[in-house]
Amino acid sequence: MHGLGELETAVMDVLWLADEPVKVRDVLARLDTGRQLAYTTVMTVLDNLHRKQWVQRCLRGKAYYYEPAFSREEAAAQALREVLDSSGDPEAVLMHFVASTSDEETDLLRSALRKKRIRRG
Fold first, then answer.
1. How many helices (H) and strands (E) in the chain?
2. Closest among 32, 30, 75, 26 to 54, alpha carbons compared
3. The dihedral of CA 27, 32, 33, 34: what is its sign?
């Protein structure tokens, strides 16, 4: 994801796949990074994600339980928003993007734009 490091992205993937808030130990057990990580490393990553407002946490007993602050789709949309805002030419970015879309993705974009128009009334 835009703005996250490789390990932060892997941790977010674990959280997005979880059905409920999880402890550090649960995240560590589910991580598949190809290398062995220390508990404290995962704890630090989760603390950093909390500070960056990517995750929410609540204290239950002596352990924090973590969950995503927003969905994967919301994160992707925010990343696109940041790209458009920082591009200097959002129209050109969107035109290049649209040129790269499949027919199915083009149909999805058209549908989304129609729904947005309807909501505006």
1. 6, 2
2. 75
3. positive
Q: Which of 99, 98, 56, 52 lies closest to 78 in space, CA to CA?
A: 52
DSSP 61: T
For the domain made up of 6-68, give the CATH fold.
Arc Repressor Mutant, subunit A (1.10.10)
Q: What is the pLDDT along the chain (121 residues), one digit of tens a residue?
A: 567 899 999 999 999 999 999 999 999 999 988 899 999 999 999 999 999 999 999 999 999 999 999 999 999 999 899 999 999 999 999 999 999 999 999 999 999 999 888 887 6
Domain edges within the chain: 6-68, 72-120
The pairs formed by 35-43 with CB atoms below 8 angstroms and a separation of 24 or more are 37/7, 41/7, 42/11
